[in-house]
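Hi V.,

Quick status before I head out on leave. The structure for the redesign project is tokenized and pasted below; the design run finished overnight.
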């Protein structure tokens, strides 16, 4: 995706698997995006800080494994 594509982008899909969120933006922050679950989804402070509520370092496979492992730990899944 290049700079021209970004200018026309109105939605970006991100993976989230936590309930943490920013209630109030830091002083000087500019809201760049929100979602149905989190108003302050994406924000910046000048050209120094980019805040993101999602987990861009996680991919689908990693999140899937986290959920499956948690379900095993909780006893909701077994080997059968």
């Amino acid at each position: 995706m290049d700079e021209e594509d970004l200018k026309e982008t109105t939605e970006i899909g991100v993976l989230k698997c936590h309930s943490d969120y920013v209630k109030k933006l830091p002083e000087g922050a500019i809201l760049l995006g929100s979602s149905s679950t989190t108003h302050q989804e994406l924000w910046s402070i000048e050209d120094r800080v980019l805040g993101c509520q999602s987990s861009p370092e996680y991919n689908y496979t990693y999140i899937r494994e986290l959920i499956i492992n948690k379900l095993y730990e909780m006893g909701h899944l077994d080997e059968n």
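Above is the designed sequence. Residues 60-73 form the longest helix (14 residues).

G. will cover questions while I'm gone.

Best,
W.
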